[in-house]
Amino acid sequence: MAGKIIADQIEHSTAGSIATNYVVNGSAKAWVNFNGTGTVAVRDSLNTSSISDSGTGTYSYNGSSSFSNANYCFSFGGGIHSDDRFFHAQTIHVDESGGGTAPTTTSTRINNFMNGNTSNNANYADHPYFSYKIHGDLA
Predict the structure, then answer these.
(1) Contact, 68 vs 136, CB < 8 A?
(2) Which end of the chain has the lower number of beta carbons within 10 A, N or C?
């Protein structure tokens, strides 16, 4: 039996309460943790149909459900473990002005740059640990 719960507030027995619009509007609507080396492999995800490997340091997120528009907020990061240290990746999103692909309601293209160099592909890099999340309204 399908149903609907309608509430304006959620209350915890000891931690207080919060308006439900913060939960609905503030929660990530999609996320993915994946291995970006060799054959790209999704470790765990929500609202993610796949991650495509588009070349060294370049990936495409493909969603299971559409967003209401392509103006959502996203973040992407990762790195590599080496000698008990964790090196963070510097990342950007490729947009139309950069000659790449603009986000759509179901996909975004993301690049991983090392050393902050975004002028050419020389510093694109794959890493074994990446995470990506999206906040926005689902269609």
Answers:
(1) yes
(2) N
DSSP state string for 9-72: EEEETTTEEEEHHHHHHHS-SEEEEEE-SSS-EEEEEESEEEEEEEETTEEEEEESS-BSSS--
- The answer to whether 134 touches 73, Cβ cutoff 8 Å, is yes
Whole-number Å distance between alpha carbons of 67 and 69: 5
| Distance from C-alpha of 89 to C-alpha of 130, rounded to nearest angstrom | 9
Helix (H) or strand (E) holding 25: helix 20-26
Cβ atoms of 69 and 105 closer than 8 Å: yes
Question: What are the domain boundaries of the chain?
Answer: 37-135
Of all residues in the chain, the percent with pLDDT exceeding 90 is 27
